[in-house]
Write the structure tokens for this entry.
Amino acid sequence: MAKLTDRSLEALRPRTTRYYHFDGKPRRLTFGTYPRLTLADAGVKLAEAKQLLDKGLDPGAQVVAERIAERRAETVADLVARHDPAEFVNLRDKRCDGNTIRRR
């Protein structure tokens, strides 16, 4: 058997696209690319996806729901808008007008 190295794993390409069927429709699920996702992690994610399918749940729907939750997460603009501008007074430079924030 050939030795698996990082270079040989990066050069691998799938021979066929794997699909699973849910509600009679073919679906495709990807877990990530090799350097970011190790083979061991891919095996764990595959086992989790198979468990969800055995329970009658769509693993792809869970991934979509996670992405939607990330997009709806609170942003820095939301955090700043939620706080009173008076809390940021100590960041303002005394030599500037009241609308300038000094750099550190």
The first strand starts at residue 20 and ends at 22.
